[in-house]
Design goal:
about 130 residues; alpha+beta; 4-stranded antiparallel β-sheet; globular
């Protein structure tokens, strides 16, 4: 992953997490709330395993999606490419701001299919 260009890492993390987290966050109450302008997803990941005794460096991508675009995406009126194209994404390398990014995006169902070995979630607990 660390061998990819930063633009490609941001695109990968956008594809993997932003659509899934939007689905979780954009409840009807928030969509109907007039003071909510949009949704922000911040994803951070270890850039590279640090040498012994060195602090880790994390890359971060902060994504803002306007409410109208989020609703269009969630209701099937916009695809993931349109979601990425209309999102405002800022990236950081540790404490260094890299600035605005325009991620490419593709369907990624990792969040829905990944299973932690030996873990079964309590079926009585939901995210809604």
């Amino acid at each position: 992953f660390s061998r990819l260009a930063v633009q490609d890492r941001v695109s990968s993390m956008f594809s993997r997490y932003v659509p899934h987290l939007l689905r979780s966050m954009a409840t009807d109450d928030l969509i109907n709330e007039p003071t909510v302008d949009g949704f922000t997803v911040i994803v951070s990941w270890l850039k590279i395993e640090p040498p012994a005794g060195q602090p880790p460096v994390f890359e971060t991508a902060a994504t803002f999606v306007a409410k109208a675009l989020a609703v269009d995406y969630l209701r099937g009126r916009a695809n993931i490419g349109q979601l990425a194209g209309g999102a405002h994404v800022l990236a950081w390398d540790g404490d260094t701001k890299l600035g605005a990014m325009k991620p490419k995006a593709w369907p990624d169902d990792f969040v829905l299919t990944y299973k932690v070995a030996g873990y079964t979630p309590d079926p009585r607990v939901t995210c809604r």
